[in-house]
Amino acid sequence: MTDQTFIAGKPVAAKPAVVTRPRREVFSKHRMSFVTWLYLYASLFIVAAIVLLPLLTTAIGGFKTLGDLRVNPFGLPSQWIWSNYLDILGSGRYWQMLANSMIIAVLTVVLTLAVASMAAFTFAHVKFFGSGFLLNYFLIGLMFPVATAILPLFIRIRDLGLLDTYWGVVLPQVAFGLGMSIMLFRKFFQNVPHELFDAAQVDGCGYIAYFWHVTLPLSRPILATVGIVAFVNSWNNYIMPLILLNTDAKYPWPLGIMVYQGEYSTEWQLVLAFITLTILPTIIVFFAAQKHIVAGLTAGAVKG
Amino acid sequence: MSQTMIAAPAQGRAGRPRTRGTLPVLILFLPPALLVFTLFVILPMGEAAWYSLYDWNGYGLPEKFIGLKNFELLYRNGAFRQALINNGLIMLVSIAIQIPLALWLATMVSHRIPGAVSFRLIFFMPYVLADVAAGLIWRFVYDGDYGLFAAIASFFNVASPYVLADKNLAIYAVLGVIVWKYFGFHMMLFIAGLQSIDKSYYEAAEMDGATRWQRFRNITLPLLAPTIRLSVFFSVIGSLQLFDMIMPLTGGGPSNSTQTMVTFLYSYGITRMKVGFGSAIGVVLFVICITLAFGYKRIFMRND
Questions:
Q1: Residue B288 contacts A, CB cutoff 8 Å
Q2: Is the ipTM of this complex over 0.95?
Q3: Any idea which architecture A91-303 has in CATH?
Q4: A15: left (phi > 0), else alpha (psi -120 to 50), else beta?
Q5: Which of B33, B115, B126 comes nearest A116 by C-beta?
Q6: Is B179 domain-assigned?
Q7: CB spacing of B289 vs A122 below 8 angstroms
């Protein structure tokens, strides 16, 4: 701001006769009068406070005693109780939960990437009878939520003997993510220059070799995008594990946190510490890889 | 290696190499996706329609055919009607409050002002958190003994409200959390949309002396219309699926005042193992989703 004014101010010094004109131009060009500036930042700070306040209160609340929380929910703790956090970190339960979430999410991501990229490849490159129909078949999956079919899904998983197993959650998660994943992959694959494929063919490269040696290595950005979407969806998924798992030891964190809250419902300080520790990985990863995550989570929307 | 050997004859065919291996690639690449998708998405959906005609607890085979009785029961159920109203309300708030808010913020943070990127990230952060975690955090904020509301009440020396336990207020509390959690996602969509608008329109308008509001009304809004339509689409579909957030906040209570279709499905169909009745809810939800999705696309998104 300041250096722009300075540069614009230069002619002012050179020609004192037209003092007012360049000044007005400064304001209109950058359309940022002081009032606008104030309005802008005041609004942004208020909204940011509304977003952050609940999160910060949660994190700080985890350091308080229950009594402290009661009389002073928003200030800093009168005494920092580290044991709330340390006890949870020392318990196997927290790590077990995260491990469960991690196993389910990694299996979901790997399987989604493999299955969806192969299917999308055939839709993008292979001309075959019924390909348009099949593609639409997969895209139906985008139209309705898991909940519509959750009871029959439960019965199916039960009859397959997969109830209360990681795979019993992973497979439906992969299935419900396929529509979006195939769509994203297909879009990307179609944009790979066709000459590349022709050249590879001339060299005797078949579809499968082409997929493995050319398409996949070129597709890192889309693999990352689809992988992030699948990971976040799996990591945050609540309804599927809720219905398809029934042993505490296998619960991923969204279920574990609810069980914990049920057990310690009156001891908010512990619940708050627990919530903080469970969302901490998400927040750290979000800030570390924010560009990819924002791009990934809005990709389906923008490209769809 | 064998590929290189066969390459020679393929090349010889008048410069038009026929792609070999269409069949192997189809046999290898399509079935995994087809199998998973059919097994865990399409079949359960079809079965929901089938089971919905039976009175069945999920064991043995569905034998007690009762026709459309489940749908009739559903139609007469007051809690389900409340759920429908609530879903409508959520949709309304998403469209009438959340989207304008997101648009307003997007226009602010897309200015080249210091800190814009940080604000974007902060606003997007709630979207990355799991609904369950967001719900639990706000359950604390709304808590009449410990939370923000308790603090405000004690500050003004009035009896602290138990917002989530009040059947007239609870739904508004839930709506607040929904806006808090999702406005950042819509804001990101709008930012992407704003970036694709050609800056020269604004320069031209400014030269003609258009006010800030006129520029917004006559340039931003019309050019952003496709993004807004998309954003509304996501709000509509998203509001129909709402479940995870309600469970930690109210579980659908008090006295069913915060039920949505999916929480209703959970508490009346799944926890009571009424497979037939639950499936009927699923079918209704499916029909509503498909009708709204296709109807909306047909009417509003024809040219997008």
A1: no
A2: no
A3: Orthogonal Bundle (1.10)
A4: beta
A5: B33
A6: yes
A7: no
